[in-house]
Amino acid sequence: MTKGIKELCAEAEAVVETWTVDEARGHLEDEDVVFVDIRDIRELWREGAIPGAVHAPRGMLEFWVDPESPYARDVFQSGKRFMFFCAGGLRSALAAKSVQEMGLSPVCHMAGGYSAWKKIDYPTEAKEKK
Questions:
Q1: Cβ neighbours of residue 4 under 8 Å, at least 6 residues apart?
Q2: Residue 126 lies in a domain
């Protein structure tokens, strides 16, 4: 293997803006920031979610961001800032780098992810199975 996950994550962290959990919390009610939860739906059912966050599963993210994709989602054409998060901060760094390379801007991700958010006891909500 020529490049492992450590190298990929380090490359992403070097080019993507990173917010602390406290910085992210400060923007929770900011209408110009969209919180994007890239965790698997089963993680949301099990652990809960940040109120108001858009769920965009990691496996579909690039398809939802690309306006030319048949799966494109309008939220990603809003011109707002997108703050990506996952469970621990690694998948979100990779995701933010990928969509940044696609031209989505501005983007950032949250260090420590939802686990760090929940540990501080910031607002969460249950996600029910549909």
A1: none
A2: no
